[in-house]
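Sharing in case it's useful to others searching the archive later.

Someone asked me privately for the predicted structure of YbhB/YbcL family Raf kinase inhibitor-like protein, so I'm posting the question and my answer publicly. Question first, with the sequence:
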Amino acid sequence: MAQSRPGPSGRSTIFMQVHPYQGGDLILASPSVDADGWLSAVHSQAEDASSPPLSWSGPLGAASYALVVEDPDAPREEPALHWLLWNIPGSTTALPGDIEAGFHPAATPGMIQGRNSRGEHAWLGMAPPPGETHRYHFQLFGLDRRLHLPVDTPLAEVLHVLKAATLFKGELIGRFRGPVDVGDAASPARTGSYGVDPAVDHVTRAEEAAGRGPLDSGDIDRHAPHDPEGVVRPRGGEPPDPKRPFRL
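And my answer, the predicted structure tokens:
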């Protein structure tokens, strides 16, 4: 009997379980998250899987910071843990990109890099199933102390300390959509959007298996006829609106 694929965890992230006792919000930012909230593919397993750079501002006075990055849309019982850092110095207001693996990365002296869901002391690159959009919650906690924890401390135990030591917190959410492997489709599958929200307009598994993607409002897709210059034409054969050129 075939087993059904588990759905998103539906569990709350660490951010929702920690209540600061001092108050105030940390403001997180990253050049890897664009104005529409999409996280750069360079941090995914399909590309470099490098950790994204981060910076923050807000209340002062933290003795140290802890960072937790989770994907609550992962098909598992609990959110997938992509990154776990603690003992980021209180004087620090940014992390560089592409931090090396290991529990004591040289990029930020004194910082500890805990284990991700794969058991590695590193950033775990995004890898949602093809065509699925997942959210990645970057959760930063300003703490009243440094944490004296072994480098292999699991997230549940780190959370226990965060609940008692958090002065203030902040969150940045980036989205990433799993690229569609066009080699598995009967004909080229569409991985982009024709001017609509890519979180809604996506190629479903059934559509991909059938070798076509969803249509836009002009009934234009990648499997319609096109001229030698690559301009996609509607199924009726009429050229598209010149104000909305679509090219392969």
